Amino acid sequence: MSDITTLNGGSCIAFKGKNCVAIACDLRLGNQALTVACNRDKVFKITDKTYLGMTGLASDVDTLRSAFRYRLNMYRMKEEREIEPETFAHLVSSTLYEKRFGPYFIEPIIAGLNSNNEPFIAAADLIGCLNFAKDFVVTGTASDKLFGMAEGLWEPDLGPEELFESISQALLGALERDALSGWGAIVRVITPDKVIERTLQSRQD
After folding, report:
1. Is residue 155 in a domain?
2. What percent of the chain has pLDDT over 70?
3. Which of 36, 93, 116, 168 is the one with CA 20 to 30 A from 83?
4. Is the pLDDT score of 1 beyond 90?
């Protein structure tokens, strides 16, 4: 295997909208071409308005999820407030960079609304180099297909429903062209007053 990050498969994408953001992932957990499970959610709640998506080696995803939970609890106790998505992105970056000589094989996406309800999305590579995007970010085995779909479907200042439709079509279109991702998807649209979560059906082959 040339790339250990593709061992378990999976893809994730985030779109920025008008006072809202959307983050979506597929549900497949595999061992190369063998599908192990089809209920593996790769997006995790950080705060009420911030979510983290992680694709890559499944064991490293679980390890980092525990590490971030610990560091977030420490932040809440010390600062006595919820972490902003911009701050959390730098926390993710520094956590990954600490292990740069033996990195975690994951690619994270951060999506959320800050205290002013301004949308924020960012992605990082496996040693924590951040990419702050104005439109969309993608990670996972279907990245090249997701880039093509997102460039065609993303538009500025989309509302929650239009954003949901765009990110859903982009993700489903890419999953049909990638053998290591798929088996359904979960989309979350984060707005100032609620989080809209919907499960999508996709091809099961």
Report:
1. yes
2. 99
3. 168
4. no
Query: Residue 186's Cα: distance from chain center in Å?
Result: 11
> Please, which residues bridge with residue 31 across strands?
34
Dist CA 45 CA 203 (whole Å): 27
> If you search the block for the tokens 């809440």, which residue do you land on?
76
Q: What average pLDDT does the segment 141-170 reach?
A: 92
In 3D, which of 15, 11, 46, 13 has the Cα closest to residue 119?
Answer: 15
Encode pLDDT of 93-103 as tens digits.
999 999 999 99
- Reference 111, options 200, 194, 45, 193; nearest CA is 45
The tally of CA atoms less than 13 A away on the side-chain side of residue 23 is 29
Report which DSSP code applies to 204: -
